[in-house]
Amino acid sequence: MLGNDIEDLIGKFSKLPGLGPRSARRAVLELIKNKNILIRPLLSSLENALNNIKICSKCGNFDSIDPCGICEDPKRDTSVICIVEGVSDLWALERTSSFRGLYHVTGGLLSAIDGIRPEDLNLSSLVLRAKKTDVSEVIMALSATLEGQTTAHYLANFLKDAKVSISGLARGIPVGGELDYLDDGTITAALKSRRPI
Fold it and tell me: Model-level pTM greater than 0.85?
């Protein structure tokens, strides 16, 4: 029904997270209808991303400079490192503007089933960073899955010689959440993490 070039473009777009075949078709149609306004600037941005985006050698973030803007920001609190699984987690925390420390991206979680071992993750520089004299706390901001908890326990053991305080994100009922709509694991975590009022 469609030309090979259009089908190929739809196929490429449908591989992006959040875009299925129908959403990809709509996006491609919009691009084609507005070639000069959308496609040319998009091509330029993609070319810039391809040539300029790097992985930060300190924390694992994506940026056009290395070390990244977060690691080089003199206003950041260098005494706290927040460990996250991926750059999307880092971006989510940054979106809140509530954390002003530094980050460390592991690049994944330990998983025996998937064959992901400690040496497969970005961990080697973590102990060196944590042993810096001004680092006093490491926050584990990993998912509340079995893999996330396994990785957090491994990292806590991995960091015990660094003489830093290790903390984790609170777990439980989200703001505005109703008990009736929450799963059993979330309610259990909320009960275990209860605090005085």
Answer: no
